[in-house]
Amino acid sequence: MKRENYNYDYYEEEMEDDTLDIQDLIFTIFRRWKVIILTMIPVIILGFIFANTRPTIYEAQTNLIISGNNPGISLDKSDIDLNQKLTTTYLELAKSKSILKNIIKKFDLKDDEKALAASISILPIKDTEIITLSYKNQDPQMAAVITNEIAKQFITRVTEVMKVRNITVIDKAQIPEKPLPKKRALILLASGMAGLILGIGIAFIIEFMFAKLRKPTDMEKILNVPMLGMIPEFTHIAEESGKGEKHA
User: How many C-beta atoms surround the C-beta of residue 115 within 10 A?
Assistant: First the structure.
């Protein structure tokens, strides 16, 4: 007999694609919503704790400019291009071990060289000879003082290594009035997304580990025989029939 005689139009659709489709994904998410929620809750709580226990950080910054050896002489384009190329070399010198050790020793910092280097940011301003040097610290006054000291030792180090003194401080670091934003909303959003992804992942793992037969194709794969039809559930009809017999 032909399969269409059984009037199961969906059966043909199931046979066309044995892979996990969008409906399966949505069904799994709704089926395991409790698992997803229970996974998200602790992740969001951890994100909330992290967001509210982050220390208050202040950032001070100073600007330096790379100029020619003779300030009275105007620079042409080739000189400017050369100074811009030197910026890359100077950026490496700014975080040299000698400078980091001197800063740690002078201010009796608890940070090691690696932690101190992570707190220092030295960035060139595009298409200019200006370098922005910044330092982060929980104490705003210390942030400004250490930033200026790093700039001072940086200039000294460049003079020793390059045998030229062509870096000048444009603006000294001032005590920052406001701390850096803690980005609590962003952290909570990230923790929520991480919890959702983790929860969905766990839901799919559980679903595949404890999979049940839901499609005619699942039965055919196990038994390796074609299915001729499906028997409807007569529970409702049997209950109605039983009620009718009682009333009779």
Answer: 12
